[in-house]
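Q: I have 113 residues here and want to know how they pack in 3D. Can you give me a structure?
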Amino acid sequence: MTLVTLLGGFLPTALLFLAVAWWSGGGKVGRAQTLGALAEALVLSLLAALWFASLGSGGWGTLFLLLGLLVAAGERGCHPAFLRSDTTGKVLGFGLTVVRYALAGSFLAWRLG
């Protein structure tokens, strides 16, 4: 896998993560959020490159869905109070993180797979 191919997978993923950060921040993205989104996209792109170069393309949807659930649970916590909460903002944020990772996985599968 060449560096150009890896960059081709990183760029749409980074743009997706920056767009989600901009949307969830109400149109404002600080330097820390930008660097965090870029670092997250880079790590996810490297993981996808490892996945597609060694294990093939099978099961990528499940992989990125599980990664999204793992990150969302780590960000918001998966304790009983969260699961019983009636605030739609927390549940929407949880779902947005899962969808963001699944969509990024589809971009990476398209470019790297």
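Q: Anything worth noting?
A: The mean pLDDT is 84. The first helix runs from residue 3 to 24.
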